[in-house]
Amino acid sequence: MSFFKSSGFKYFKNLVIGVGAAVVMVGALMKITSHPLGNTFITIGLLTEAGLFLMLGLLPPEKDYYWDKLYPGLDKYNASISPLTAGGAGAAARNLDADVVENKLGGMLDELQGMSKSLGSLKALQEVDFSQAGDQLKGMNNFYARMQEAMKNMDASVEDTKAYKDQMAALNKNLSSLNGVYGNVLNAFSVNKG
Fold first, then answer.
1. What was the pLDDT predicted at 95?
2. Exposure winner among 62, 69, 77, 148, fewest CB in 10 A?
3. How far is the CA of 15 from the CAs of 1, 5, 8, 11, 52, in angstroms?
């Protein structure tokens, strides 16, 4: 069984699975495009895949967990399981580094203290009196309404100012023209007198 768990076998297994899948895909492509070797390639690829599935079905699955190091006997149905921290000093207990466990527990303690501070802040927020918040919101709403009215009045006065400015410009233009006419009249009188 140790051969099946070796990294060389695992690499070989992945290589054969990949090559077999590639041959099936090429065979399917050749079959779809009616290539003369399509039947041969798809047959070789499917037989390779069938052999791989048979092999994978016969091999025992690999463990994806390591709980049995902390709880020896976890993989046996009728085993008496007690954690290593309960005092069982077996071979697995020797593999457990006390410094690592202490560091992890210290980190967990720091996180719990941080959570405790956060919960204290939430409790302080719970004790805040929000009874006057409604009155304050009404006051802010009233202020907002008055501010909008003032903005509308300012817009109207800006329009009035623009109209006044346009009228003053027209009046200035008319006065300039009138001054020109007056100057011409004066020149005409002075020429006739002389």
1. 52
2. 77
3. 20, 15, 11, 6, 11
> What pLDDT, on a 0 to 100 scale, did the predictor assign at position 160?
84
- Residue 63 sits at φ, ψ, to 5 deg, of -75, 135
**Which residues of the chain are under the pLDDT cut of 70?**
1, 63-77, 79-98, 129, 194
Separation of alpha carbons 94 and 108, rounded Å: 23
Q: What is the pLDDT of residue 74?
A: 66
Token pair 């091999």: residue? 59
pTM of the model: 0.32
| Percent of the chain predicted with pLDDT > 90 | 3
Q: Where are the domains of the chain?
A: 1-62, 65-95, 96-126, 133-176
Amino acid at 189: F
pLDDT at 93: 47
Print the SS3 string covering the chain: CHHHHCHHHHHHHHHHHHHHHHHHHHHHHHHHCCCCCHHHHHHHHHHHHHHHHHHHHHCCCCCCCCHHHHCCCCCCCCCCCCCHHHCCCCHHHHHCCHHHHHHHHHHHHHHHHHHHHHHHHHHHHHCCCCCCHHHHHHHHHHHHHHHHHHHHHHHHHHHHHHHHHHHHHHHHHHHHHHHHHHHHHHHHHHHHHC
